Amino acid sequence: MIIEKLTPMRPLFLIAAIFGFLAINCPFLYFALIDKETYAVAMGNGMALLFIGEAFLLMLFFAYIIAKSGCRKPGWFFFIVMSILGSLAFSVPLQLYLMTKPKEGQ
Fold first, then answer.
1. What is the C-alpha separation between 54 and 24, in angstroms, rounded?
2. N or C end: fewer C-beta atoms under 10 angstroms in the chain?
3. How far is CA 16 from CA 21, 25, 28, 84, in A?
4. CA 18 to chain centre
5. Mean pLDDT, residues 52-80
6. How confident is residue 106, by pLDDT bands cut at 50, 70 and 90?
């Protein structure tokens, strides 16, 4: 399978997932929970809503690819949950990190 060729890049996937969580999720949570005025203005911006819509379409597309690839662990449902709780900058590298986990006995 092609995904096994990505195993040497596994540490980079973890670093990218952590960076995506810290650089995207933490500021988002700050604005959503503390600076609610800025959050409300952003949610009223048509361009921001287009980017949010694009992110949801990409999330569904990637979940479909994961389901069709036959990956059972962590799977497409886990990817959707991580994308909603986090962001694509977090969930895509995390998914790749978990998918490239070496098999038992390697």
1. 16
2. C
3. 8, 13, 17, 17
4. 11
5. 92
6. low
